[in-house]
Design brief:
Blueprint lengths: L1 H20 L7 E5 L15 H6 L1 H6 L4 E4 L3 E2 L11 E5 L6 H14 L2 E6 L9 H7 L11 E2 L2 E3 L2 E3 L13 E4 L4 E4 L14 H16 L4 E4 L45 H19 L5 E4 L5 H6 L11 E2 L3 H5 L6 H14 L7 E3 L8 H5 L4 H10 L3 E5 L19 H4 L6 H4 L37 H5 L5 H11 L3 H5 L1 E6 L4 E7 L4 E8 L5 E3 L11 E6 L11 E3 L3 E3 L4 E9 L1
Parallel strand pairs: 1-2, 1-15, 2-5, 5-11, 11-12, 12-13, 14-15
Antiparallel strand pairs: 3-4, 6-10, 7-8, 9-10, 16-17, 17-18, 18-23, 19-22, 20-21, 20-23
Bound molecules: alpha-D-glucopyranose.
The site of alpha-D-glucopyranose has 9 residues, from loops.
Protein name: alpha-glucosidase
Family: Belongs to the glycosyl hydrolase 13 family.
Keywords: Glycoprotein, Glycosidase, Hydrolase, Signal
Length: 578
C-alpha cells in the first residue's frame, strides 16, 4: 500500500515535471498581426505599435498566447515593411523604440509572447548597406549579388533569365555601380549575398539586437530564397530551365526554380540562427526563444528546417500543406492525407503546427466558403501542436473588394488591371473590424490606407461578442477546450470517416476523449464513430456546437450515431474519462 502510494506520488511528480518542462510554444495559439491594419492610435489611417499595445488585452480575451506582428521596422514601404531600411529601428509610421518597449512590457504582463518578423533575404535599396555596396565601398561591395550582365549586339542584357516573384526580371541595372543587382522580390528589395560571412554576421547581430530587447523569437521571412546557386569560376550564373505553361518571360512561373530557391545551404543558415538563440538562452535564461520559418518548399525540404542529426533547426517550420493543397472541393481523404503526411514525415521528437491563412493569401472564408470558417478554426485548434491564426480569421472576415484604383500591393501593381485581382494581397489586408462605428473602429481619422471591408457592420468584434455562436465565441470556446489535458498532451488520430466527414480524436489515459468532426460538404451525414476509432467510450456529449448545429452544448449523443448538418463541425467529449 505504502509503496503503491509512493509510486503514484512519483508518477504525479513526474507528470508535473513534464508539464513544467513542456516548452510554451508547443501548444501555443499564435496570432499574426498585420500592424498596418490592426489598430490606428494616431488617426492617420495606418495601424501602429501603440494600437497593438492597446489591443493586447483582446488577444488575451481570445486565448492567444503569442503574436507575430508583420514588420514594423524602418522602411520606405515598397512592400509594406518587408523592404527594411534599418534592421534595428522602428519606422516612425509605426511609432518609436519606446513604443516598442511599452508593447513588450504590456505583452509580458499579459503573458503574450512577441515574435519579431525577421526579413533576412533582402533589405530595402534605401538601406545604408545597399547604398555603400552600390558605391563599391570595400566592406560592402559583396553584401548583395552583383553582375555586369552581357552585351550582345551592343545591347545590354541581364545575367540570367531569373524572374522576380513580383514580375519582371530579377535583375535591375544600377547606373551608379554600372552593374545589375539581384532582387527576387521588388526591385526595391535587393537580395543579400549569404555566401559572404560578413553579411551572415551582420544578420546574426540583428537577431542578437532584438533578443536583447526582449523578443520571444523570430518569424523568418522567405527563407527559401536566401541562397542562389554559387557563381561559376567566371562569376557567372546559369539560366533556369523554362516551364512550358507560360511564354511570358515576366511571369514568375516562366522558369523552373532550381537555382534561386531551396539551395542545400539554406537550412544550415537556420541552424546557425538557432544556435544564436540557444547561446542567448544559456546566458540569459527565461523561456525558450523560437524560430518560425517561412518556406514554400516541397514537404521533404521543409522537414530539413527542423534540424538534422547534429543541429537543431526551427521549432516551427510553417506547415503550409493545408494552405497550398486544399481546395473548395477537396474531400475528407485529402484533409486526412495532408495532416497525417506532415505528422509522419516530421522528425521524431518534433512538434506540429497548423496554418490556414496569412497576409499573403485570400481570406479563409473567401477561399473555402463562409460556411467553413468555423470548420478551419476548429481543425487548427484541435489538432496536436500549435495553431497559427491570421488576424480577423477568428471573426470570419472575408476578402474585401478593392478596386484597381485603390490597389497598393506591389504584387498586383506590377501587373495589369485585367488580372490584378488574382495577384493582389490587399483584399486580406484590410483594417481589422472592431465595431460597427465609422471605419469599423479601426481609426478615428478620416481615411484608411486600404478601404474597410463593406460587411464590417455585420462582422466585427463588438457584434460577435454578443452572439453566442458567433465565429469569435466559437474561437474562444475552442481555446478553453484546448486547455484540457487530452488536447494539450494527448495522442491524436486523424481519420476520414467517408469522403464527406473528417474526424480527429484526442485522448490520454485519465482524461476525457475528445472527437472533433468536420462535415466538409453540404449534405446531412450520419456517423458511427465505433467504426472509425477503436476502444471508444459509448457515450459522448457536445463540447462545442456551431450555428449549423441542431443540438445544444452538453446534449448527450451515442458514439454509434452522430448526425452532422451541412458544413457542421463539432467537438464531442466522452462523458467518462478513459
Ligand atoms: C514573404 C512575405 C511577403 C513578402 C515577401 C518578401 O513571403 O510573407 O508578404 O512580400 O516575403 O519579403
Amino acid at each position: 500500500m505504502a509503496s503503491g502510494t509512493a509510486i503514484i506520488l512519483l508518477l504525479a511528480a513526474g507528470l508535473l515535471a513534464a508539464e513544467a518542462a513542456a516548452p510554451w510554444w508547443k501548444t501555443a495559439s499564435f496570432y499574426q498581426i498585420y500592424p498596418r491594419s490592426f489598430k490606428d492610435s494616431t488617426g492617420n489611417g495606418i495601424g501602429d505599435l501603440n494600437g497593438v499595445t492597446e489591443k493586447l488585452e483582446y488577444l488575451k480575451e481570445i486565448g492567444v498566447t503569442a503574436t507575430w506582428p508583420s514588420p514594423f521596422l524602418k522602411s520606405p514601404m515598397a512592400d509594406f515593411g518587408y523592404d527594411i531600411e534599418d534592421f534595428k529601428a522602428v519606422d516612425p509610421l509605426f511609432g518609436t523604440m519606446d513604443d516598442f518597449d511599452r508593447m513588450m512590457t504590456r505583452a509580458k504582463q499579459l503573458n503574450v509572447k512577441i515574435i519579431l518578423d525577421f526579413v533576412p533575404n533582402h533589405s530595402s535599396d534605401e538601406c545604408d548597406w545597399f547604398k555603400r555596396s552600390a558605391a563599391g565601398e570595400a566592406k560592402y561591395k559583396d553584401y548583395y549579388i552583383w553582375h555586369p550582365g552581357f552585351v550582345e549586339n551592343g545591347v545590354r542584357r541581364p545575367p540570367t533569365n531569373w524572374v522576380s516573384v513580383f514580375r519582371g526580371s530579377a535583375w535591375e541595372w544600377h547606373e551608379g555601380r554600372q552593374e545589375y543587382y539581384l532582387h527576387q522580390f521588388h526591385k526595391k528589395q535587393p537580395d543579400f549575398n549569404f555566401r559572404n560571412p560578413v553579411v551572415r554576421e551582420e544578420m546574426n547581430n540583428v537577431l542578437r539586437f532584438w533578443l536583447e530587447r526582449g523578443v520571444d523569437g523570430f518569424r523568418v521571412d522567405a527563407i527559401y530564397h536566401a541562397f542562389e546557386v554559387e557563381a561559376d569560376a567566371n562569376g557567372n550564373y546559369p539560366d533556369e530551365p523554362r516551364n512550358d505553361w507560360t511564354n511570358d518571360p515576366d511571369e514568375y512561373g516562366y522558369t523552373h526554380k532550381i537555382y534561386t530557391v531551396d539551395q542545400p545551404e539554406t537550412p544550415h543558415l537556420v541552424y546557425e540562427w538557432r544556435q544564436i538563440l540557444e547561446d542567448f538562452q544559456a546566458q540569459h535564461g527565461g523561456d525558450e526563444r523560437i524560430l518560425m520559418v517561412e518556406t514554400w518548399s516541397p514537404i521533404e525540404i521543409v522537414m530539413h528546417y527542423y534540424g538534422n542529426a547534429t543541429a537543431e533547426g526551427a521549432q516551427i517550420p510553417f506547415n503550409f500543406q493545408l494552405i497550398s493543397n486544399l481546395h473548395r472541393d477537396s474531400d475528407a481523404y485529402h484533409y486526412e492525407y495532408l495532416i497525417n503526411n506532415w505528422l509522419s514525415l516530421m522528425p521524431s521528437g518534433k512538434s506540429a503546427n497548423w496554418v490556414i491563412g496569412n497576409h499573403d493569401k485570400n481570406r479563409v472564408g473567401s477561399r473555402f466558403g463562409a460556411d467553413r470558417v468555423d470548420l478551419f478554426n476548429i481543425l487548427l485548434l484541435t489538432l496536436p501542436g500549435c495553431s497559427i491564426t491570421y488576424q480577423g480569421e477568428e471573426l470570419g472576415m472575408l476578402d474585401a473588394y478593392i478596386s484597381w484604383a485603390d490597389t497598393v500591393d506591389p504584387q498586383a501593381c506590377n501587373g495589369a488591371e485585367a488580372n490584378y485581382m488574382a495577384m493582389s494581397r490587399d483584399p486580406a489586408r484590410t483594417p481589422m473590424q472592431w465595431s460597427d462605428e465609422k471605419f469599423a473602429g479601426f481609426t478615428t481619422g478620416s481615411s484608411t490606407w486600404l478601404p474597410v471591408a463593406q460587411d464590417y457592420a455585420q462582422r466585427n468584434v463588438r457584434k460577435e461578442r454578443g452572439v453566442s455562436l458567433s465565429h469569435l465565441n466559437i474561437f474562444k470556446r475552442l481555446q478553453q477546450l484546448r486547455q484540457e489535458p487530452s488536447m494539450q498532451q494527448g495522442n491524436a488520430e486523424i481519420k476520414a470517416v467517408s469522403k464527406y466527414v473528417l474526424a480527429v480524436k484526442r485522448h490520454m489515459s485519465g482524461s476525457y476523449v475528445y472527437i472533433s468532426l468536420f462535415n466538409i460538404f453540404n449534405s446531412i451525414e450520419n456517423v458511427n464513430l465505433n467504426g472509425v476509432f477503436s476502444g471508444l467510450p459509448d457515450n459522448f456529449q457536445y463540447a462545442l456546437v456551431t450555428d449549423k448545429s441542431i443540438r445544444q452544448l452538453s446534449d448527450k449523443v451515442s458514439a454509434g450515431s452522430v448526425t452532422l448538418m451541412p458544413h457542421e463541425s463539432i467537438v464531442l467529449r466522452s462523458t467518462e474519462m478513459l
